[in-house]
């Protein structure tokens, strides 16, 4: 019996999840079946007259939301009329394709492989997991960039080090997504969520305002905790369970030639020049990338980080890739440069197909109001059980973690839940900072096991590059370990923080 077979047999429930999950139809067919289920369920709920009412703090009014059928005349028209727009406006699609154009040049010329060899010669193998998880966590400062940069790089780095690439990929995925709220620095997400919470308090007549650093101390501690936990899960559970890698992907083990070393030097020079120019445009005396923030009225990089950073990343990979390719002779003319991007797009064919059907499923779920109904119903249930203090916050974490499986958007979900829970918990002497942090723990940790998560299909495609036999079951059976351990350890840290009454940020109490 091979090591992999033995480890899978001993994995018990995880092995069963993988086995059952991989027996499911192709992910495209699965998305079609799930979409059909949502269509039928929407008709059932609409026929039963299911509706919920919640307070919208932005509009300062109560809003009643009804289940909307996708099987009546209006719904069927929506299915046909929205299909193209659902696909073209599917947020991860453009993000992934543009980033992969740049990464494709760097990969095709050999820059990434050469850089990995050079990098690994200076980093101890035992620190790779920690470095990848930490990089994933820190990447959320730039929104979704980590999904299209850190996740594939995690697989490449592990493969180059002779370790299982899927272990590297899933470690990066866990850091980027399950640790999405943790960071050493406040970022755009902090500003967004704090703004919604402050609106919720003001609309309830509560004169209390949080700052963007409301959770900063706790997030710093969370970054350290999740890096350690993610490393232990990767090295002690996931990689031993995966066993020895037997897939077809094989990085070159030949030493770097003098020409390749020269190419790396030239690529580094180009990279330094590019980063210096970008730093000046972002932070210099005439920072062109700063614009007026509509919320604060001050100059900030929020627009650039949410919209312009993606093209900047394309250049970040393609320009050094071009320098390396020209130096090594891989790129001799413009045709070769385009060939690098073309090769990258060839590998994205299956992702484009997956994205079309995933976009339809997510749109149907949103159109039918199922996410709003589920979230509001769950909130009503939590209010009815009359818990207080820490047990109430822990119950809130579990409820939000469950809702997160069906309603992935952090901002949309918080816009719905904050007007209910932030004022309610405030009246129970729980600081808004604590409510926000409890929400962020739950919002981050269960994204990685939900097929409704926007980047889930992309991760499947990346994984199949290294193991064609892997499927949804493989991914979920791995990520459910990260999800469960992250949720438990993060909630435990929060409980300890609560019991000691430590501030969550500068001037940010956890209880009154």
TrEMBL record:
Which keywords does this chain's UniProt record carry?
Membrane, Transmembrane, Transmembrane helix
GO BP = p-aminobenzoyl-glutamate transmembrane transport
A Pfam family of this chain? ABG_transport
Query: Where is the chain membrane-spanning?
Result: 28-50, 90-112, 119-139, 145-161, 216-234, 267-289, 309-327, 348-365, 385-407, 444-463, 475-500
Q: Name one GO molecular function term.
A: secondary active p-aminobenzoyl-glutamate transmembrane transporter activity
Question: Which InterPro entries does this entry report, sorted A to Z?
Answer: AbgT
What is this protein identified as?
Aminobenzoyl-glutamate transport protein
Q: Which organism's genome codes for this protein?
A: Atopostipes suicloacalis DSM 15692
């Amino acid at each position: 019996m091979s090591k992999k077979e033995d480890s899978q047999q001993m994995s018990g429930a995880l092995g069963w999840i993988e086995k059952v999950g991989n027996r499911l139809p192709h992910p495209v067919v699965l998305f079609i079946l799930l979409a059909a289920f949502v269509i039928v369920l929407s008709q059932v709920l609409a026929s039963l007259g299911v509706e919920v009412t919640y307070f919208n703090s932005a509009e300062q009014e109560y809003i009643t939301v009804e289940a909307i059928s996708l099987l009546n005349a209006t719904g069927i028209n929506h299915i046909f009329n929205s299909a193209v727009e659902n696909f073209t406006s599917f947020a991860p699609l453009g993000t992934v394709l543009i980033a992969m154009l740049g990464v494709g040049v760097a990969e095709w010329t050999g820059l990434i492989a050469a850089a990995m060899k050079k990098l690994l010669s200076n980093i101890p193998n035992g620190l790779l997991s920690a470095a990848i998880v930490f990089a994933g966590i820190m990447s959320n400062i730039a929104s979704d960039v980590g999904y299209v940069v850190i996740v594939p790089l995690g697989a490449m780095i592990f493969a180059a080090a002779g370790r299982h690439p899927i272990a590297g990929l899933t470690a990066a995925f866990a850091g980027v997504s399950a640790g999405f709220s943790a960071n050493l620095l406040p970022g755009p997400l902090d500003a967004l969520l704090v703004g919604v919470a402050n609106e919720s308090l003001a609309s309830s007549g509560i004169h209390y305002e949080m700052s963007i650093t409301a959770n900063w101390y706790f997030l710093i501690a969370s970054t350290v905790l999740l890096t350690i936990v993610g490393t232990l899960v990767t090295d002690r559970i996931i990689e031993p369970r995966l066993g020895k890698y037997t897939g077809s992907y094989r990085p070159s083990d030949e030493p770097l030639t003098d020409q390749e070393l020269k190419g790396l030097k030239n690529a580094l020079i180009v990279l330094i020049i590019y980063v210096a120019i970008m730093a000046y445009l972002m932070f210099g005396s005439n920072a062109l990338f700063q614009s007026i923030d509509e919320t604060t009225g001050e100059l900030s990089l929020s627009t650039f980080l949410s919209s312009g950073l993606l093209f900047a990343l394309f250049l970040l990979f393609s320009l050094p890739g071009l320098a390396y390719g020209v130096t090594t002779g891989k790129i001799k003319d413009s045709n070769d440069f385009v060939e690098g991007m073309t090769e990258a797009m060839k590998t994205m064919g299956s992702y484009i197909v997956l994205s079309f059907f995933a976009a339809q499923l997510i749109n149907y779920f949103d159109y039918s109001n199922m996410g709003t109904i589920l979230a509001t119903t769950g909130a009503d249930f939590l209010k009815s059980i009359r818990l207080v203090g820490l047990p109430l916050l822990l119950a809130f974490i579990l409820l939000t973690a469950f809702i997160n499986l069906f309603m992935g958007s952090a901002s949309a979900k918080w816009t719905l839940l904050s007007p209910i829970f932030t004022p309610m918990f405030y009246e129970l002497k729980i600081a808004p900072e604590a409510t926000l942090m409890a929400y962020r723990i739950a919002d981050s940790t269960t994204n990685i096991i939900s097929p409704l998560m926007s980047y889930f299909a992309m991760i499947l495609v990346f994984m199949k590059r290294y193991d064609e036999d892997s499927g949804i079951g493989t991914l979920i059976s791995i990520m459910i370990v990260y999800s469960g351990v992250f949720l438990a350890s993060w909630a435990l840290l929060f409980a300890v923080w609560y019991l000691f009454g430590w501030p969550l940020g500068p001037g940010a109490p956890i209880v009154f």
